[in-house]
């Protein structure tokens, strides 16, 4: 018979795997596909024909994090149709954020480590996100623009109370709290039996 602790770990990892992130801006290649997010470009392997204009200077990307503590990085490909991780190079150093919910992160390509980008160039931006259960990926196909401002209708805000949360907190998205509580209850009963 499997030990209750094993069952607990198995169930907890199943819960944690459900926590992901959703890229909001620039809009991703396709609708968020939870099961495919551990794969290149969330499983969307063909470049989108409807690209988003993205500024060379003063840009940002925004996402929703379902993890309370996470690291993220931005990679970029100048290939017309990037199909592997090798086609992407790191734009910035990975950074860590504490907090769940909406986040808006500055992305100034002109002052980044990715040189040679030009006005009118088609590139693919891939956001790499890690909340403690493996890396997740979403891509956006964009056209770079000089002297261009992202529309003020695009939301750029951070979740309130997002900074300086204690580290090591368990996943607390609304869907996983009841799941963890249920697991705990089952395991307690198993241990008491
Ligand atoms: C591109 O078009 C598809 C299909 O209409 C849509 O689902 C997707 O959100 C669009 N992507 C962008 C970046 O506008
Ligand atoms: C960039 O992509 C757009 C839309 O897919 C396309 O119409 C345009 O020709 C491309 N530009 C270049 C320089 O490849
Ligand atoms: C570029 O790379 C250097 C060295 O790795 C790093 O210190 C710097 O923060 C990077 N720049 C950006 C914008 O991430
Ligand atoms: C972008 O916004 C800045 C600050 O509001 C403004 O000075 C600039 O003229 C705008 N650029 C364009 C191309 O609209
Ligand atoms: C949101 O938080 C991130 C990470 O701490 C920070 O880099 C960014 O500037 C913040 N964005 C806004 C709009 O405050």
TrEMBL record:
<feature type="domain" description="Copper acquisition factor BIM1-like">
    <location>
        <begin position="18"/>
        <end position="161"/>
    </location>
</feature>
<keyword id="KW-0336">GPI-anchor</keyword>
<keyword id="KW-0449">Lipoprotein</keyword>
<keyword id="KW-1003">Cell membrane</keyword>
<dbReference type="GO" id="GO:0005886">
    <property type="term" value="C:plasma membrane"/>
</dbReference>
<dbReference type="Pfam" id="PF20238">
    <property type="entry name" value="BIM1-like_dom"/>
</dbReference>
<dbReference type="InterPro" id="IPR046530">
    <property type="entry name" value="BIM1-like_dom"/>
</dbReference>
<feature type="signal peptide">
    <location>
        <begin position="1"/>
        <end position="19"/>
    </location>
</feature>
<keyword id="KW-0472">Membrane</keyword>
<keyword id="KW-0732">Signal</keyword>
<protein>
    <recommendedName>
        <fullName>Copper acquisition factor BIM1-like domain-containing protein</fullName>
    </recommendedName>
</protein>
<dbReference type="GO" id="GO:0098552">
    <property type="term" value="C:side of membrane"/>
</dbReference>
<keyword id="KW-0325">Glycoprotein</keyword>
<dbReference type="InterPro" id="IPR046936">
    <property type="entry name" value="BIM1-like"/>
</dbReference>
